[in-house]
Design goal:
single chain; about 325 residues; alpha/beta; five-stranded parallel β-sheet; two-stranded antiparallel sheet; globular
Length: about 325
């Protein structure tokens, strides 16, 4: 049942986005877990369309905010204004009052505005003028940032990076995928006619089912060993936190659910190691470097370190 719903959603989003099945599946994982996703890639790789297509496929509200240096926290959360007709203060909701929020180029806003998202992301609520308002579930923040531009940007602090369940890369399409994109968008944007194939209730049901996914003690031990290994690796300055461990296992349970299983396997954890853990650690040298004559970005270097750490941990051999 859940596997069929997930397949229908992925196929529906794929009517708009070509060749990104893995990224779409991971966005569903985040939605089920109640986490958030940071998409880091160059402009024009389909980040906004992916978020819109996912929202339409699930009959969810969608809002987009372009982060700029002059964006204020109240521009996100909302403000109280005085209505002369009613002679009272009325609250005008900000764009965070939605189901899927696309925070476009989040690193172009100041630290003050970036931090205003923290309560929304972690507590699923907004506090304005001493009043606390709950955000309607499900709530997913998809933030984007451009890794090739640093001028006029404010890098996300480690504490805020840790609030994101995953950090994903959209990647350029292949030659064949590029041709398919040209054909698909030759007449009109398929997003305009995209119909929903699931409902918010389906997400709520999957959230409850994901909590029941079985995790064997050996798989728990494997997950903890990977987290502990990040704290001992000589190339890593600050390893993964207990929050990262909780997110790691929760994401693995959601992934197992989407693939039609009622248990987590070690392979689920190995697959999710880079997207869930890479942005949560700090390495001794974060700059780009050359390896075997090829340029390696800082992000790819961290991914390589996480993959190496994961491979160094003994995997449970019992069949799952």
């Amino acid at each position: 049942m859940n596997k069929d719903i997930a397949k229908a959603i992925k196929e529906n989003v794929s009517k708009v986005i070509v060749g990104k099945d893995k990224q779409i599946e991971y966005l569903l994982v985040a939605l089920i877990v109640g986490g958030h996703v940071l998409l880091e890639d160059v402009p024009g790789t389909g980040k906004t369309k992916t978020a819109r297509a996912l929202a339409q496929s699930l009959s969810l509200d969608f809002k987009r905010v372009q982060f700029t240096i002059d964006l204020l926290p109240s521009d996100l959360t909302g403000i109280h204004y005085f209505d002369r007709k009613t002679d009272e203060f009325i609250f005008r909701e900000g764009p965070v009052f939605t189901n899927i929020l696309l925070a476009d180029e989040i690193n172009r806003a100041t630290a003050r505005t970036q931090s205003s998202l923290l309560e929304c992301m972690e507590e699923k609520q907004v506090s304005v003028d001493g009043r606390t308002m709950k955000l309607k579930p499900p709530f997913l923040v998809i933030a984007t940032q451009n890794p090739i531009e640093s001028q006029g940007t404010f890098p996300l602090p480690e504490a805020q990076l840790d609030r994101f369940l995953m950090m994903l890369k959209m990647d350029y399409p292949t030659h064949e995928e590029s041709i398919e994109i040209l054909k698909r968008f030759a007449v009109e944007d398929p997003l305009t006619s995209l119909a929903s194939v699931a409902s918010p209730e389906d997400i709520f049901n999957m959230q409850e089912e994901a909590k029941k996914i079985h995790v064997d003690d050996k798989v728990y031990e494997y997950a903890v060993s990977i987290i502990e290994a990040t704290r001992k690796d000589p190339d890593i300055r600050v390893g993964a936190s207990p929050r990262a461990l909780l997110s790691y296992v929760a994401a693995a349970k959601a992934l197992a659910l989407l693939r039609g299983r009622d248990f987590v396997t070690p392979d689920d954890l190995k697959e999710l190691a880079v997207p869930v853990l890479a942005h949560r650690i700090s390495v001794h040298s974060s700059g780009s470097f050359v390896k075997d004559g090829s340029f390696v970005s800082a992000r790819d270097r961290v991914a390589d370190i996480i993959s190496r750490v994961t491979d160094s941990v003994t995997c449970p051999t019992e069949k799952f």
